[in-house]
Amino acid sequence: MLLTVDLVILTLREGRLCVLLVERGEDPFQGMPALPGGFLNHAGEEILDAAHRELSEETALTAGWVHLEQLAIYGDVGRDPRGRVVSVAHLAIAPGLPEPVAGTDAMDAAWVPAEAVLSGEVELAFDHRRIVTDGIERARTKLESSALATAFCGELFTIAELQQVYEAVWGTELDTRNFYRKVQAVEGFIVPADSGRRSTGGRPARLYRAGPKKVLFPPLIRPVPSTTEEGTREEGE
Predict the structure, then answer these.
(1) d(Cα 169, Cα 137) in Å, to the nearest integer?
(2) Which of 98, 136, 107, 131 minimizes the C-alpha distance to 4?
(3) How far apart are CA 6 and CA 184, in angstroms?
(4) Full-model pTM
(5) Distance separating alpha carbons of residues 237 and 232, to the nearest angstrom
(6) Cα–Cα dist 74/130, whole Å
(7) For residues 113 and 185, what is the distance between their CA atoms, to the nearest angstrom?
(8) Euclidean distance between the first and the last CA atom of the chain, given in angstroms as a whole number
(9) What is the DSSP letter of 187?
(10) Per residue in 168-227, pLDDT tens?
(11) Residue 236: Cβ within 10 Å count
């Protein structure tokens, strides 16, 4: 039995949630898009170290600049035609990631809109669509009850930029006033920065940074799709 690590790397590009995919340079599934990842370098390499190594090779990012957490273990029989291969998948999130450079075993690498993967428009190798789906759902769920949204932002951000994160990850528009009220109601979620305001083309917007609170209470509840003409609305409105 062989062990690999796979990475669901998420970022926002031009306001859209995107996932990093590589084009496989060898069989199986040569030429198909897949998640970045690979086998452990040696029997003594720790799984988390392997995840950080793959992250560094694919994005040149280190642990201090990215949110990285273990997602799940995938070990279904037949998931890999090479034999019994178990993958320990990780979720990685960072703001403003640059254009990727393909690694040694990939022909190309690119940011792909997450919706194109979720919808099946982009077909992935192995069971990587399932892993991406699980990773995005993890991010969507954690945005409700944790400060994970700030991992998509730079060190300083406006509330409008934070709202853009929620809208991109959740895939729905939010009422600006209601969002502002809910964010401000969670003490310690974000705190005002000392570096003034940012010009947004209109009235300068106040800057914030991530606060000390990691668990949000009250939580920011994800909107529930509506079948009425009103479209999607947040619970409790």
Answers:
(1) 9
(2) 131
(3) 36
(4) 0.89
(5) 11
(6) 10
(7) 32
(8) 52
(9) T
(10) 999 999 999 999 999 999 999 999 998 766 666 567 889 999 999 999 999 999 998 765
(11) 8
